[in-house]
Amino acid sequence: MKALLAAGGTGGHMFPAQALAETLKAQGWDIAMMTDARGKKHAGRIPADPLIEVSAATISPRKPHKVPGGILKLMRGVGQAKRFIKTWQPDVVIGFGGYPAFPAIRAAQRLGVPTILHEQNAVLGRVNRVFAAKANYVACGFERLLRVPEKANIKAIGNPMRDAVLSASMREYEAPSQTGKINLLIVGGSLGSSIISTTVPKAVAKLPAELRARLNVVQQTRDADMDEAQALYLGANVSAQCAPFFSDIQTHLAKAHFVIARAGASSVSEIALMGLPSLLVPLAIAMDDHQTENAKALNDLKAADILPETEFTPEAVENILLERLCDSNYLETASRAAQSAARPDATARLADLVKAVVGAA
Q1: Residue 5 and which of 19, 72, 92, 227 are 20 to 30 A apart at CA?
Q2: DSSP, res 123
């Protein structure tokens, strides 16, 4: 059997594609991957051969002058995708969102090849919205999915997780004792976050000395903010490890007692899988405010606090940390609540949908 995967160039799109590719490949499938130039740089770990680069562009209402050129690029990409599909003849095409997925899904639906869409966020993305009504299935990462066409065939399966994250999650969460060390993890998404990088150290520095002495901080910190963050932690006598990116983020997640993070789909799903209490800071410029909707999945369970960027001040963060870090009962309860939203079998469920579509074709 042959599966063609198509995804945009960010980790949020690529990680679920990688997880599905690994599973299907292990079951004997041939896998091809279609993305654009940016995505190709991040596709090295996806077991796909061939890896096809197509012409694609983002169509944004915020930049109307670029729309005509973007449409031409997408149509050129559709032509490329059609030629590849006719030659390689996949049994199914799976799209993971992002404009680089547009050509493959458009071509597949026009050629009558079965299609499955996977939506990582709690709001259906613009590209997936275009094709949802004609797709065999729209698999989604959260129980609630907004902006869905009436005819879409929705299946809530969760967000596929990488094997390293799944393996690291196989441990029991233990809240810190009243005098024990507290592991605080701060992450800002794949590109980092300036507001998180700069605000959290200021908040931590305001905490009482006895609480600061118990903290072990691991913080994803943008290069531009590194010196300031390290100086603040040093001045506050807080043990802190700061870096622009952690390739072993699953190790830090497994050790954390509390997380401050963006509310991207992958982050929220990893936090749920690990059973971690959290403070979530939705990206204000996210399309359709989808990160706030993602965060509600944990906030509704009382597993996470949500703090919008407009309210994300050192004082507000200090108050939340004071309330949450010193309450072991809350941490234990929030951990169980978060874990109740986890979908460790998401990759297997998506693979089952793929096989069902091919079997019915």
Answers
A1: 72
A2: B
